[in-house]
Design goal:
The chain is 34% helix and 31% strand. With 107 residues, the chain is α+β, with helices and mostly antiparallel strands. Strands 1, 2, 3, 4 and 5 form a 5-stranded mixed beta sheet that branches.
Amino acid sequence: MVLMGEPAHVGCMLDVRTVGVIEAEQTQDGKTQSNCRVLAVAVRSYSHENIAPSSHMSQSVLDQLEQFFISYNKLHGKKFKVTGGGGPKRALTIVKNGMKAFDKKNG
């Protein structure tokens, strides 16, 4: 999820600064899988320029983001359970692990 001051169109390329990750599990039709959310801030977003890594992010902002993902998934018949979180280094580890899993699955 990219936090920014103005909306952007689908497929738009943005320069972002990773601030953290919400680690979660998503359940649909009885099947549960990891479905983490990387949090980033648009580099040129003046309204969000003061957002620091999630370990220092306002708990209120984190709570709102978590509730957004829970509600969004519920609307689509899925259960979204937050299992943890972390800062930019943890987010990078999760992204790299996901890339490895993708490569392994797709040869």
